[in-house]
Specification:
The chain is mainly alpha-helical. Helices cover 62% and strands 6% of the residues. Strands 1-2 form a two-stranded antiparallel ribbon.
């Protein structure tokens, strides 16, 4: 029975088990080789938040606000623009762009704050 149980775990590889030695003689583990500088939890959180953002953009902003936020922050594949560039593109003043942007960001923040995570 002992040999049968050993046979089942013979091919198991553990992430913190040494698999190789580097040039200086330090043991390398699978975790060292596969290590990624980005944390998977941060990636998942970013993905969830991004999905929420696009959902909230369509729910709580009117067309003008959405257009300004899209241009200012480079959403939906657009390049981010300055307030002056957005104003020129839409034919309105830079201060009006600023007011609309501030109102839109406030609406989005309220939506985020009221939504359980």
């Amino acid at each position: 029975m002992h040999f049968r149980s050993q046979k089942k775990t013979l091919g198991d590889i553990y992430i913190d088990e040494p698999i190789e030695v580097d040039k200086e003689g330090n043991a390398l583990t699978l975790m060292d080789i596969m290590g990624d500088s980005e944390d998977i939890i941060d990636k998942v959180d970013l993905s969830i938040r991004s999905g929420q953002l696009y959902e909230f953009l369509n729910k709580c902003l009117d067309i003008r606000e959405l257009e300004i936020i899209k241009y200012r922050y480079g959403l939906y594949g657009a390049n981010p623009l300055t307030q002056r560039e957005v104003a020129q593109r839409l034919g309105i003043s830079r201060s009006y762009v600023s007011r609309i942007e501030k109102k839109a960001l406030s609406s989005l923040k309220k939506m985020y704050d009221s939504t359980p995570y």
